[in-house]
Amino acid sequence: MTTQLPRREHRRRTGRTVIRSARLPTPPPTEGSSRRGGLLALIAVTGLALLTLGPAGVALLVRDYATGEPAAGHRIGEPVQDGPVTFLVHQVRCGPHEESVNGRLCEVTLGARNDSKREVTVPSTAQSLLVSSGARHLPTRAGTDQFGTLAPGEAATAVIRFDLPADAEITQLRLRADTYSRGVPVAVDFIYPLLRPK
Description:
There is one protein chain. The chain is α+β, with helices and mostly antiparallel strands and 198 residues long. The protein folds into 2 domains: 37-67, no CATH class; 74-193, Immunoglobulin-like. It has 3 helices and 12 strands, in the order αααββββββββββββ. It has a 5-stranded mixed beta sheet, with no helix packed on it. Strands 2, 3, 4, 9 and 12 form a 5-stranded mixed beta sheet that branches. A hairpin with a 7-residue loop joins strand 3 (85-95) and strand 4. Helix 2 (31-52) packs antiparallel against helix 3 (55-67). The radius of gyration is 29 Å and the shape is globular.
């Protein structure tokens, strides 16, 4: 029976040199492995969404993964807050209009309230509409109301106008208290026909 000696003791008694196997450096993760990891994470989250939210939740998550936009968890008529401002989408109206350049005019009736202790200027032009293709549309300057500067506790309502392609499918609004905010998404699940002036 052979007795296993420690490596230093083994060299001193036998005169043999113990050769250690070289350890190869771990290769850095490749782009493909990162994508595979992201895909596995998406599959896991999608399975959870299917169990808890149903097919609609899966559709929102897949669109969010593809476009990089967060899925909308809020609905029209539900107050949402971005920074010091609380927004409320009253309604969305869309339809053909002679003033539309792209084929479809949409008007969003939006309320904003300053919940801070200082004046806040809410830019109407910072609000945006997102469509199913992932494109983001900004308001037109013509026909869009301005919130202006709101004193603490003051609220205002504005009609914000968007000019969209006729076949654009609206998915969500992105509401911002200022130009540099990431914004709060609100799902557009019902659209009224556009009122035509008499």
